[in-house]
Amino acid sequence: MYNSGVAGATANTLSGSRVFIYEVVGLGQPSVADQSNYPVRNSGSVFITVPYNRMNQEMQRIARLGGKILSIRPLNANNQQMQSGADSRPMTQMQAESVPAPTKAKTETDIPVNIYRPNNPYIGKCLHNEELVGEGGIGTVRHLIFDISGGDLRYLEGQSIGIIPPGVDKNGKPQKLRLYSIASTRHGDRVDDKTVSLCVRQLEYKHPETGEMVYGVCSTHLCNLEVGADVKITGPTGKEMLLPTDPDATAIMMATGTGIAPFRAYLWRMFKEAEKQANPDYQFKGLAWLIFGIPTSPNILYKQELEELQGQYPDNFRLTYAISREQKNAKGGRMYIQDRVAEHAAELWTLMQKEKTHTYICGLKGMEDGIDEALSAEAAKHGVDWKEYQRQMKRAGRWHVETY
Prior knowledge:
This protein folds into three domains: 9-108, no CATH class; 122-237, Elongation Factor Tu (Ef-tu), domain 3 (Beta Barrel), CATH 2.40.30.10; 250-403, Nucleotide-binding domain of ferredoxin-NADP reductase (FNR) module (Rossmann fold). It has ten helices and 16 strands. It has helices spanning 55-64, 93-97, 217-223, 261-271, 273-278, 303-312, 337-343, 345-352, 367-381, 386-395, and strands at residues 19-25, 46-51, 68-75, 122-131, 141-147, 160-164, 178-181, 195-201, 204-206, 213-215, 230-237, 250-256, 287-294, 317-323, 357-363, 399-403. The chain has a six-stranded antiparallel beta sheet, with helices on one face. Strands 14-13-12-15-16 form a five-stranded parallel beta sheet, sandwiched between helices. The longest helix has 15 residues, at 367-381.
């Protein structure tokens, strides 16, 4: 892993990799900041550690943020001095632009991890906080957008960030971070590399002994966050749920509730027009199939946007709902996501035989057994042991699970 923040620069030891440090000035906040009555940051020099195979992408990101690169210098394995025998003169931006484009293959150095840690979190701003559950739905789920333009936090689709709520816990210690799957593409909802988005359900349940309602500390903090308020962010973390770089891949996505978050990021990257323009090297031509489990129709998160994409790309995006309190399964009971998987098991099994098919599961852990049962029955029809085939897919990096 590597850390592109100044504080973490000495922690970057990338054996066998070429690493450079960019000196950058002029990084600012999005224009919406002006409307939120907090000052625009035009900082002094910021130093960003960049692996060789991300140099062109990082220069594009800096340009979109309004920054100017003053110098680019190579680092040695200790990340403190210039490489032995290397030309010590900093490269100009023009020279840097002549560096060959990075390969498309994803390597460990392509994946940002723990740029910001709990002892030194990034302080972002809430730019947007919107209710996603429609009238008559169950609970509250919010779509939040945070400003990250004042630092060097970056992330990939399928990763998570940590949020540290304010205050102290019952032992008088500072609150610990909670992880949330990122709901936006690497460029953010505004496709300007200045924001990160979350999809957060407020946790609430009855105390088993007292019967009193208990509300989640961090989820309540986020759901009630006002525009302009500070938020402590750590991360990013996670390599399990990354989207394949192959534009011809098939992505089978099974989600319940806020497990939709990483899949929203995938779909926006695949199909949104602004994203296509921002990602000329990634033009999705494969198949994306989302099977989404929710209790009621008003609980279909991002419903309008999902159905618009389905209408625009019927040959590339398939959308299947499992609405438990409104639809019936084949046995007359409630329709859960595992029932939809059983219903389409033959087609799903056929897709899973292809080397370019990746299967993702995100949401409540309870759905895993039902999905396994449905696919096990289908695999058995072909004389295949499902558990062994699932292990093969995991070893091949084609089976991805993030449940809670």
